[in-house]
Design brief:
single chain, alpha/beta, two-stranded antiparallel sheet, 19 helices, 12 strands
Length: 483
């Protein structure tokens, strides 16, 4: 077995096993290893039976099976486990060998690891992997970044096993250091936003329109045949139509308390760090946090009163169409904000990200895959320097066409006491972005009044001055800083 395997995989959870089987299907010889060795034996005797997959019972045995340069991919829990495996692998590898982290690692950790391993002569790749169990098995979206010298040695494998959109692989080199994991993080943040937007549409139809799950399933099925065509709309349709063993909707039995693994929170924190207003994704994270307060909400539901009427009294079909348009417009804002964050971060780190290419990578295999992404690619193909999707003709007109419905849905939700935090934050961002004037002049005056933080005047935007507002505050100003 010495030197016969093309790549090794550490980690035999759902994603690891399915990626190995995917690689095997495409003709690659893969060595499988897991810290709990019994899982290797179970895998070889189970779904890997009859394949060319090799099992290793130690890291030493695993490395010995690999062709040079050795390629070792990990799909293990983000954090210390990744560093632990790296530390154990380094003594077994040689200059030019490649370690790939395919987990949901923080991009800052990936940058640190790439720099540390480069000094030791080992190339490190941090790759986003999206698509869940089915994507891993039949074609995920892959977002590799890190040591670009490694790309020629993993490109064929990665592009072969990836999903395809318009016959193009949903995988391309993203950029240096932690760029791959950063793009995957933003992907997951947009995923949080998309899911929350869909849930708000579901909430409005369920509560305001009193629609049954089957009726809502039909609505989502219709939406999936138009401009909202996407994986998340598709599975929402299926979930709404799914019956439990007693022939009642399973969805209604699921506790309304959402979990999260942290990537949405990381995206929101990054937006604060780089000063980009990812308001919709932030609200999506907070909505999950609020949902987790189930016991408190149950108590509050008996004590806190809202509007007496929670039913929409107009035409239900017409209002459902308003909801569709509000969802579409808000979805545009979600992606707009995500690409704003990627652009700013790329500028800060001097990463030359191909935004049209990123949109293509997301068009197939991943959780946020949708027809919508083709329009984003076209926007960046037309103008690679596009600073904001809302300034592209297609998206500007799309939002204009949806705007009246968007406002009606949010206003109706407010009047009926139905929360729409993601819809509302998306519209507030749109109204703020299109405003030539915002009341931040008053904020600057307030800051200067209580803290002598200074302000700039319209006629001299680069010059900062301080006013003694009270007559006894003095003329000494604080240091100018940007919050």
């Amino acid at each position: 077995m010495a030197g016969t395997a093309d790549i090794a995989m550490i980690g035999l959870a759902v994603m690891g096993e399915n990626l190995i089987l995917n690689m095997n299907d495409h003709g690659y010889v893969v060595t499988a290893y897991n810290r709990t060795v019994s899982k290797v034996d179970e895998f070889l005797a189970g779904s890997a039976k009859g394949t060319k997959i090799i099992g290793a019972r130690s890291l030493e045995e695993m490395v010995a099976t690999l062709k040079k340069p050795r390629r070792v991919m990990m799909l293990v829990k983000a954090g210390p486990a990744v560093d632990d495996f790296i530390n154990k692998l380094v003594p077994l590898l040689e200059n030019g060998d490649i370690i790939i982290d395919g987990g949901n690692s923080e991009y800052t950790d990936t940058t640190r690891r790439e720099r540390e391993l480069r000094v030791k002569g080992i190339y490190f790749v941090g790759s986003g992997v999206s698509g869940g169990e089915d994507g891993a098995r039949h074609g995920p979206s892959l977002m590799p970044g890190g040591s670009e010298e490694a790309w020629p040695y993993i490109k064929e494998i990665f592009q072969s096993i990836s999903a395809k959109a318009d016959h193009q692989p949903c995988c391309e080199w993203v950029g240096p250091e932690g760029a791959g994991h950063f793009v995957k993080m933003v992907h997951n943040g947009i995923e949080y936003g998309d899911m929350q937007l869909i849930c708000e549409a579901y909430h409005l139809m369920k509560q305001a329109l009193n629609m049954s799950n089957a009726e809502m399933g039909d609505v989502f099925d219709k939406w999936n045949q138009g401009e909202l065509d996407s994986f998340l709309i598709e599975i929402t349709r299926d979930i709404l139509k799914f019956k439990d063993m007693d022939n009642t909707p399973l969805l209604d039995k699921i506790r309304d308390s959402a979990g999260q693994k942290g990537t949405g929170k990381w995206t929101a924190l990054s937006s604060l760090e780089y000063g980009i207003p990812l308001t919709l994704i932030g609200e999506a994270v907070f909505a999950r946090c609020l949902s987790s307060l189930k016991e408190e909400r149950m108590e509050a539901s008996h004590l806190l009163h809202g509007p007496p009427n929670t039913r929409y009294e107009g035409d239900a079909h017409e209002f459902a169409e308003h909801i569709r348009k509000a969802l579409y417009a808000s979805k545009i804002i979600s992606y707009t904000q995500g690409f704003m964050l990627m652009r700013e971060t790329a500028h800060c780190f001097n990463w030359k990200l191909n935004f049209g290419g990123i949109a293509l990578m997301w068009r197939g295999g991943c959780i946020i895959r949708s027809t919508f992404l083709g329009n984003i690619k076209e926007a960046f193909d037309k103008n690679p320097d596009l600073v904001n999707l809302l300034l592209d003709d297609f998206f500007r007109e799309a939002v204009h066409n949806c705007q009246e419905s968007w406002r009606k849905v949010i206003a109706t939700g407010v009047m009926l006491g139905i929360p729409t935090p993601a819809f509302s934050s998306a519209l507030a961002f749109y109204d703020g972005y299109r405003s030539s004037w915002l009341p931040a002049n008053l904020i600057q005056a307030q800051r200067d009044y209580f803290g002598a933080h200074t302000y700039s005047l319209n006629k001299e935007p680069g010059k900062y001055v301080h006013t003694n507002w009270t007559g006894h505050g003095g003329n000494v100003a604080s240091t100018v800083y940007q919050a």
